Amino acid sequence: MTFSGTWKVDRNDNYEKFMEQMGINMVKRKLAAHDNLKITIEQNGDKFHVKESSNFRTLEIDFTLGVNFEYSMADGTELSGAWTMEGDMLKGIFTRKDNGKTLTTTRIVQGDELVQSYNYEGVDAKRIYKRG
């Protein structure tokens, strides 16, 4: 499947501003910008197993497309939502448990890159990963 593989963060676009909008403090933003995040994705039909490994934590998530699940971001922000497939793009719509606001995330493979985009309260950001 297209998303299956190991992806290592290569660069960020407006990521610190996005984290600031999310309410993440400056120290955590600085650390997160250099977290060396590696994502391993195993896709089997509409089921996904994702392992996120960084300098700060390792987390494994299992989800099925269209089925709500709960997720805790590295800073402790609790979310609930689901991923769906729109063409070749994974789209996640998540609601923050603390304030009810929506975080939209997409993942799409472009060549040898996985582009993960975020939108929260009018701020857009991207993290670009290289296959590896």
From TrEMBL:
It comes from the Eukaryota. InterPro entries: Calycin, Fatty_acid-bd, ILBP, Lipocln_cytosolic_FA-bd_dom. The keyword Transport applies. Pfam families: Lipocalin. GO terms for molecular function: retinal binding; retinol binding. Residues 5-22 form the Cytosolic fatty-acid binding proteins domain. PROSITE patterns: FABP. Keywords: Retinol-binding, Transport, Vitamin A. SUPFAM superfamilies: Lipocalins (SSF50814). Belongs to the calycin superfamily. Fatty-acid binding protein (FABP) family. Cytosolic CRABPs may regulate the access of retinoic acid to the nuclear retinoic acid receptors. This is Cellular retinoic acid-binding protein 1. It comes from Amphiprion percula (Orange clownfish).
